[in-house]
Amino acid sequence: MLTNLTVHYGWWLLALVLIGAELMGPGFFMLWIGMAAAAMGVILMFLPELSFLTKAVLFLPQTIASVVVAIAFVWVYGPQGPLNEALRAVGLGSLARSWLGDFQFALPALGLVGTWVMFGLCMVLFLAGIQKIPLSLYEAARVDGAGPVREFFAVTLPGLRSELAVALTLTTIMALRSFDLVYVATNGGPGSSTTVPGVLVYRNAFSNGAVGLAAAVAVVLTLIIFAVAFVITKVVDRDLST
Question: Peptide bond preceding 190: is omega within 30 degrees of 0, i.e. cis?
């Protein structure tokens, strides 16, 4: 059975996905998603009574169109939106701001939305991977004196190498090719603080008439995605063969 300490650290790792997205923005929080989703997978594996409902709630964003998500979070992040109202209600009104209109916080705010959308998919993927890890490995780790955190990093994460590679590839591709969420929420603003490659391609092709430049950016973006996927695949294949 999962100890209370394991549940504690599992939820602590789950919180890292929020911190990573807030500090680093979209495109750089894939590792946080993986660690947090794997931790959630461990919790759900040993607490089956929470499994169905929690998986359904966390996977729900995958079933919602990105345009709908963008419109919803424009309202959430608005000057009079729920986030700012909640801050004012707890006496933190000085932190309230137009989050998507702030040069410093617009990109991290969108990163948090992307984290919310992708987390459920990674969590389900890791949950399936965790179920194939033999319980004897956990028992052997406990015999050797490993605690819950050591078990997580020495048994669970190594056992999820293939799933981590798939999740890292998918989240990287999603981050690099993101367009609809950013376009609807901020249209690349304020200024160019959220001008991701997809928005840049759209602007050059349809607003500025620079079709050649847009095609060049799209080709470079495609090559970057292929290169990242190739590197991830090679690293995972090398680890699995050793």
Answer: yes
List CB contacts of 4: < 8 A, sequence separation 6 or more.
none
Q: How far is CA 131 from CA 42, 50, 74, 121, in A?
A: 9, 16, 38, 16
CATH architecture of 4-241: Orthogonal Bundle (1.10)
Task: Measure the CA–CA gap between 127 and 39, rounded to whole angstroms.
Answer: 9
For the beta carbon of residue 76, count every other beta carbon within 10 angstroms: 16
- Output the pTM of the full model: 0.76
Domain boundaries, given as residue ranges, for the chain: 4-241
* pLDDT tens for the 242 residues of the chain, in order: 434 333 333 444 444 344 333 333 444 444 455 555 555 555 555 555 555 666 777 778 888 888 999 999 999 999 999 999 999 999 999 999 999 999 988 988 888 888 888 877 877 787 788 888 888 988 898 898 888 888 888 888 788 888 888 888 888 888 888 899 999 999 998 988 888 888 999 999 999 999 999 999 999 989 988 888 888 888 877 766 66
